[in-house]
Every structure is written in C-alpha cells, then in structure tokens.
Predict the structure.
Amino acid sequence: MIKVDVLPINPWQENTYILSDETGECVIIDPGCLSAEEKQQVADFITSNKYKPVRLLQTHLHLDHVFGSAFIAETYNLGLEAHEGDKFLIDQTVSYAQQFGMEVDKNPPPISNYLNEGDKVSFGQSELEVFHVPGHSPGGIVFYSEVDKIAIVGDAIFRESIGRTDLPGGDFDTLINGLKSKILTLDDDVELYPGHGPSSKVGHERLNNPFLNQ
C-alpha cells in the first residue's frame, strides 16, 4: 500500500511528495526545496522515516517544482525522470529564478529517463502509471495508482480549479481535453494530489470544478 507524504515548501508553497510502501523504498516527486533549510528539512524527513529513495520523478519542470532536484539527485544518487516535452525548461531554471529574486545554485540535472504515456514506474512492491496531460506545460504528466486510488497530478488540476495555461508551451484546450479524457474517467474516489493546495477527489471535481463540469 502506498503512503503519501506531503511537504508544502518554498515561497510558492509547492507540494513536494514522498511516496513509499511497506518495503521502505520511496520515490520523491517534484522536490521544491529552495533554501538550505528546506533541503535539510526534506533530507531529515526521509532519514527520520527510514525511507530509501530510489527514484526522482517530476510531474513537470516549472521552476517551483525543481528547486531541489539537483540536491535530491546528488544526495541520493538518482537520475531525474520526466517527460521530454519539458526538457527546454531545465537550462532556464537559474536565470528564471533570478527574475523572481531567488537564488538557485544550479539547474536541475539532465533528464536521465524520459517518461511517456502508459509507462509504468515501479518502486518497492508498488507501481505507478504515467498519464501525459499537457496544457499547463508541454511535458506535464500524472502518476496514477489504480490499486491505491491516488493520482499525483502536478499543476494540471487543483481543488475546484486548473493549472494556468499562459506560460510557454501552455494551452487551455489541450489541458481541458486531457483532464476530461484522463482524469475525469477515473473512479470518483480516486484522490488527486496537486502541486499546490489541498487534495481533492475525482468525484468532487466532476461536480464542482467550474472548468470541467460544463
């Protein structure tokens, strides 16, 4: 059974996720730790729970989701796994952060494993399926467990809202179509864990999300 730990972090209160199971192995998704203190907080959390990080996964590569990617990759000797559609964002991270007055010591590492629609991501005794849901970013992906009824959805969808589509490579119609065809087709009791804010359920969004229930 997958356990979901949520660590809201950095000035944008980005949700860094740590998914683990009974083996103690874990995957780290979207490490947003920016400051040295935040990086230490994540590392201490992993140590205190006796987790063994085995994969570094990204729902997408926007600034606030990759602040800590280099740190996690180096600390735990992990390659970065993401969709190729967001590859262009990697080399922009340090310079883009400076525009917000934020100091990022280095760009994320290159993508070591491209994740695509239908791929399976395994750790411990657990498995996640990859959905490609572009629109917020070209390489936006969702990590879904049918067994555990959870989906880590990045910034594609939030509780009663959706991700912004006015950033480079974003597209409103593409996002809506992806959410309707790949998220709203899931069971009502699937828990949706977004990149910011509280979790929700598919059934709640089906009824209450103004962007999706038209």
Observations:
- Helices lie at 36-48, 63-66, 69-76, 93-99, 172-183, 202-208.
- The first strand starts at residue 3 and ends at 9.
- The longest helix spans residues 36-48.
